[in-house]
Design goal:
This protein is mainly alpha-helical. It has 21 helices and no strands. Helix 4 packs antiparallel against helix 19 and helix 17 packs antiparallel against helix 20. The longest helix is centred in the last third of the chain and has 34 residues. It is globular and about 55 Å long.
Length: about 500
């Protein structure tokens, strides 16, 4: 049996429901295509991690330049996600999804040909914008495909399992590609994935009605992008001990953030979905999503630098070293989806945060003490299971808690917060790993160990908040089936 048919059969057996007007044979392929789009988006975050040293040798630049090569993607991705849900409603989720996938494939070709580091940073921003078009539109498409709550949760688990495989494949694929053809090859892998995704979601069957009256505040969105970029620049400059640069960027970020807040108060179509933010229990779930992105992406940034530059691992060896963390994300979301369908999302969210806290703490202590790899592998495995428990459950929780008719906006906001956490993870943990050894006179691995312990502390705080929210609020009721007409309301 061909792999595509195997995945389609898995999707069909797991969800067991056909979209009205869609043939039984077509529906599972559409779900796999939607999941592959998210797979590609996540792959581009993880595949670059093991290519950092080769990228630095090829194009030059400092740790700050490498941070921007990563955060150029996540800044654009996270900030534009704030309006991408509304854009999916306005133009039709299927149009935005297909357009984002097409731009992502073309932009990846340009990244592979980038002549310099800062050209690559700009192109990574383009990829981030394309990724922002894909993610909330994919959630809106899944919601329309599966309006019944239990089957929707199972569909999200398939989506998370296929896309979660990107975390498993990313470091290994990146290591192999860098070893064979250098860092440029890690971008070329996106081109066939984009082509396959477009083929799977083509045709009139995958369709969401547009809502032309839904507005997007372009000025507010631009201010949000600028505030996030300036704040990230301040943190990266802090890591390089450029104090004047840090002060200027930080001051500009505060000023831009103030302008954004003022614009939001006056806007008739605010960037931040107020109804979603005010939903009971939503703040705790969003904070948890940011913590997962902070710890995961920060660890994927600082650990390869340590493993390759200080401990002498090859690119392939670094990818293999991450297997204990990445493998659980490929299979555990299916189990999590079934668990969420039976018990609700809050328990798996809390369990995932606790595992991520323990894993990050174990990794930090191992790196700080210079203990053998087996101890690091145990921490990586705990973190991997934590991520694979938390993310599918958080996705379902956000959709469940969102007010009726705001699925696209809720999905966009949740993923924006996740990318904000990822951006802060790279900027803060990268700065901590760089500054700490200089300040304390210690070794570079002490800085990386301290950065991972900081990630553990962040996850512990968010786990406490999620636990407190669980005690204060009742378990959320199962979401109501969303009809196409009601779902598209602003």
């Amino acid at each position: 049996m061909r792999p595509g048919r195997t995945l389609a059969a898995l999707a069909d057996r797991t969800t067991g429901m056909v979209m009205p007007g869609m043939s039984p044979d077509r529906k599972p392929y559409a779900l796999i295509g939607i999941a592959l789009g998210y797979f590609m988006v996540l792959l581009d975050m993880t595949v670059l991690s093991v290519a950092e040293p080769d990228l630095s040798r090829s194009l030059g630049g400092s740790v700050a330049g490498l941070q921007w090569a990563v955060t150029g993607y996540t800044v654009a991705f996270g900030a534009l996600l704030l309006s991408a849900g509304a854009a999916a409603d306005r133009f039709g989720a299927h149009r935005l999804f297909r357009g984002g996938v097409a731009v992502f494939g073309a932009g990846s070709l340009l990244c592979a040909a980038a002549p310099g580091l800062w050209t690559l940073v700009v192109l990574r921003g383009v990829l981030g914008a394309a990724a922002a078009a894909c993610v909330p539109s994919s959630m809106a498409l899944i919601t329309r495909l599966y309006p019944e709550p239990a089957r929707r949760a199972r569909a999200v688990s398939v989506w998370a399992a296929v896309s979660g495989a990107a975390l498993a494949a990313g470091p290994i694929a990146g290591g192999l590609l860098v070893g064979l053809a250098g860092w440029r090859a890690v971008f070329l892998v996106n081109v066939p994935i984009a082509a396959l995704t477009l083929a799977l979601v083509s045709g009139s069957a995958v369709h969401c009605p547009a809502a032309p009256d839904r507005r997007v505040d372009r000025t507010g969105q631009a201010l949000a992008c600028a505030a996030l970029a300036l704040g990230t620049d301040a943190l990266i400059a802090l890591g390089g001990r450029h104090w004047a640069h840090t002060a200027c960027s930080f001051g500009a970020a505060i000023a831009t953030g103030g302008l954004f807040a003022a614009r939001e108060r006056r806007s008739t179509s605010p960037v931040l979905a107020g109804a979603v933010l005010r939903a009971p229990g939503m703040a705790a779930m969003l904070l948890a999503g940011a913590a997962v992105g902070f710890a995961l992406t920060g660890a994927l940034f600082v650990l390869p630098l340590l493993l390759q530059q200080r401990l002498g691992y090859s690119a392939v060896g670094t990818g293999l070293a991450f297997l204990p963390m990445t493998l659980p994300t490929a299979f555990n979301p299916l189990l999590t989806g079934r668990l969420v369908a039976r018990t609700g999302p809050r328990g798996p969210v809390l369990a995932g945060l606790c595992l991520l806290t323990a894993g990050a703490a174990a990794m930090g202590a191992t790196v700080w003490a210079g203990a053998p790899y087996a101890f690091l592998a145990a921490g990586l495995a705990a973190a991997g299971f934590g991520v694979s428990f938390a993310l599918p459950a958080l996705t379902t929780a956000v959709i469940t808690l969102a007010p009726e008719g705001t699925a696209g906006s809720a999905g966009g906001l949740f993923n924006a917060v996740r990318q904000l956490g990822a951006t802060m993870g790279v900027a803060v943990l990268g700065a901590f790993a760089t500054v700490a050894p200089h300040r304390g006179g210690g070794r570079a691995d002490h800085g990386v160990g301290g950065a991972l312990l900081l990630a553990a502390a962040v996850c512990a705080v968010c786990a406490t908040v999620a636990s407190a929210g669980r005690r204060r609020s009742p378990q959320p009721a199962a979401p109501r089936p969303l009809t196409p007409a009601r779902e598209r309301q602003p």
